[in-house]
Amino acid sequence: MKLKVCGMKYLNNMEAVAKLRPDFLGFIFYDKSSRYFNGDIPYLPEAIKKVGVFVNEDLETLQSIIKEQKLDVVQLHGQESPEYCSQLENAEIIKVFSIKDTFNFSVLLPYEEVCDYYLFDTKGKLPGGNGYTFNWDVLKDYPSTKPFFLSGGIGLKEVEKLKDFIDSPASKYCYSLDVNSKFEINPGVKNINELEKFKYELQH
Ligand SMILES: O=C(O)c1ccccc1N[C@@H]1O[C@H](COP(=O)(O)O)[C@@H](O)[C@H]1O
């Protein structure tokens, strides 16, 4: 199972997280977020994919940020349409859907051909980074074969539940876990020891 660490903001912390070799590092390009990243992404090891997180961003602006920041992947966290996704170039696309207790999977259908991954997050007051888990049992009915990211409030306390999920049929197409606010000391500052512990505990 791959790991994405999202909401990176500060250089030293970014470098420390990168040493843990996550598969993806996420940068939030949404100026209303407390994790808003408005710098330049530094050089990172090639194996770590750089993900830009956007909420209903203007398409042209998004294209120029992809180019300037050399993003590998964009995570679309708003109400971006299938047409919007189909026009995007030069980055893989993660389309986000927010879930609480139930989910109508038919909304995925128009996105099947225009994005590379789905990400399932918890529905809350904010577009993302709410820090709550959703009912993962909903994913037992996942009808697609597209790889997805499991997100929303994942922290150290979820390890045992995650192991059960990973061992269950519901995780068949779960490609990566996505962590953010539950590993923070402050918004945008990740707790390295806790991330290390998370990686270790998931594997043992
Ligand atoms: O974290 C934010 O501030 C944020 C703002 C706008 C869109 C997405 C955001 N974060 C993403 O939300 C999920 C879940 O985060 P959490 O674990 O519940 O804190 C994650 O993918 C972040 O990338």
From TrEMBL:
Pathway: Amino-acid biosynthesis; L-tryptophan biosynthesis; L-tryptophan from chorismate: step 3/5. Keywords: Amino-acid biosynthesis, Aromatic amino acid biosynthesis, Isomerase, Tryptophan biosynthesis. Its EC number is 5.3.1.24. It is an enzyme of class 5 (isomerase). It catalyses: N-(5-phospho-beta-D-ribosyl)anthranilate = 1-(2-carboxyphenylamino)-1-deoxy-D-ribulose 5-phosphate. It comes from the Bacteria. Residues 4-198 form the N-(5'phosphoribosyl) anthranilate isomerase (PRAI) domain. One of its GO terms (molecular function) is isomerase activity. The keyword Isomerase applies. Belongs to the TrpF family. This is N-(5'-phosphoribosyl)anthranilate isomerase. The lineage of its organism: Bacteria, Pseudomonadati, Bacteroidota, Flavobacteriia, Flavobacteriales.
